[in-house]
Amino acid sequence: MSYRGCTVITYFVILILLLLSFALNKNSRYPIAAPSRFTGYPTWHEELDNFDQQSYDTSLLFLIITSILSGYYSLIWASNRDLPKKYVTYIYQENGSRIPATWFNKAIAYYIVFTSVAGIALFYLDTGKLWSTFGILHNIWEVCILLLLHQGGKITSSFFFAFIAIYVIMVTLLDIVLPWPLDAIWFKAQGLCADCALFIVFVRIYLATREYVKEQSSAQLPITNEDDLSPSDEEPSVSPKIIKHPNQILLLLFASFLHILGNGIPTISPTDGRLYIFFNLTYCLSFPAYALYIYFDTHCTSILHSKRILLPDTSKLKVFLITMWSILLSIMIMRLTFI
Questions:
Q1: DSSP-H helix ranges across the chain
Q2: What is the DSSP letter of 24?
Q3: What is the DSSP letter of 124?
């Protein structure tokens, strides 16, 4: 059997064993869902221990304010059509094709904006079926970023929209028909899958780009017409801000990893009210970090000929491995809830 076949079988065996561990767990119980304070509908959590409503509301309002401001400025920075050429980042694929990172930055900006929408809904509705119609807006843009990067930084086919539509319909329908607590488990698990996939993809992009930049620096490639950074009459005469490319991508790793911590840790201990404040505070850091990445990407240049982001291999095997790792990590986090 080939290495690829052994890898696929191994991942499926691990996945099946993890799923079976839920069925064999004798300590699991169906908790009583606490009601939402404004709507009275059942939420996706029990009555919380060590919970201070005022502290929670303060942290949630801080989340909303920081995400609104971050989203507002991110959209302005990402939508700037008069960006000097020296500030433009290009996304490169292994086949040599390139495209400006404009759509990638816009996708991150919309990701921040719709996170603020989900935060506002969370304040009034609390987590639950009703809130999930807003919460999925946050997840949609995670999937959009993943698909956008898979297609080389731009929408290249109708598959993009078809996948998003199928994803939204599937998540929403299961959320509606599944009873408590399966609806909460389903929504949390699929959200963690997207979170983990985003982190894995950002790590791969950073490592591939860092290696590419090292090779480019050592080769001392001559400036070509497409990489010409000589200032034009339309560009400002002030000295540009210089960053050590690709270190700004580390902000994406930091933000996505912190986001996983914010979602994962309260999932493991769902009755500890203090962890819901921790959840809010991680969002207050991770999404401004995303906005800071967009600022650096649109306001700074590099000592290299141009800022280039290299997309790593997106073969079917790599996509499968990323998907399986994301699913496994998500299920492992969910499994810790029932220990």
A1: 3-23, 53-78, 102-125, 129-150, 159-177, 182-219, 250-268, 273-299, 316-337
A2: T
A3: H
Catalogue all structural domains in the chain, each as residue range(s) with its CATH number: 41-220+239-337 (1.20.1070)
The sign one gets for the Cα dihedral 108, 109, 110, 115 is positive
Tens digits of per-residue pLDDT, 259-312? 999 999 999 999 999 999 999 999 999 999 999 999 999 988 876 667 888 898
Given a contact cutoff of 8 angstroms between Cβ atoms, the answer to whether 293 and 108 are in contact is: yes
Stated pTM of the model: 0.88
Question: What are 128's two structure tokens?
Answer: 């639950």
Helix (H) or strand (E) holding 45: none
C-alpha to C-alpha distances, 278 to 10, 65, 91, nearest whole angstrom: 35, 16, 35
- Least Cα distance to 102 among 129, 65, 77, 137 occurs for 77
Distance CA 16, CA 241 (A): 51
> For residue 275, which of 46, 69, 66 has the smallest C-alpha distance?
46
